[in-house]
Amino acid sequence: MKLGVNLDHIATIRQARGGVEPNPLKAAEICLALGADYIVMHLRSDRRHIQETDLKNLAKTARGKIHLEMSATKEMVDFALSIKCGSVCLVPEFPNELTTTGGLNLSKRNILPITRAIKSLQKKGIKVSLFIDPDPTSVRAAKRMGADIVEICTRAYSEAKNEISRLEELERIDMATILAKELNLEVHSGHGLNYENVKDIAAINGMEALNIGHSIISRAVFCGLPQALLDMKLLIGVK
To answer: Domain 2-236 maps to which CATH number in 3.40.50.2300, 3.20.20.70, 3.30.710.10, 3.40.605.10?
Structure first.
């Protein structure tokens, strides 16, 4: 099981004052030293947290460890190519949303720009993930479009109101993982995973990586980033 640590909210705290602290690069250094497999950063169109300079500076020392979340626009594709990050996850973005609200809409009208982005990135050796809801239609569409990875959105699972709903969503994720593996896709998951709900997702056969940020950074406020990271690694079985 791989762990990608999302550091967007280190930058959120920095941007609240418009200064230079806390520095996401220092956080990335700590996480990689303690065994995180890669660093996740979402360069949003509104630049509310991570900035281009964060990614450019991280690329100087850990280019292959950058997993860039971004929309499938030409601007974002050109930027990803310029820093030659290790991998990209294409995600939906909507104005004024607090955070990503669900998987990509892979309807016919959206397929062409997303496929174009996939091919442009892969030509330069960048692996491409699509952030999708746990349904078979989306998994099959991701395969047809040529993605290397699917990241299954765990929002509905993490926000389930009762145990029946939680187990239903867990089963959906499990079934989507089985199908993705049958189609030879790498499987990641993320969104709302925390110290209380992560173990069942980590236990899914075929799940290869978890991308977690907010809960790790939240715990780090009280116990420090090294301890928060190690606590999560123990829960998901990372050695």
So the answer is: 3.20.20.70
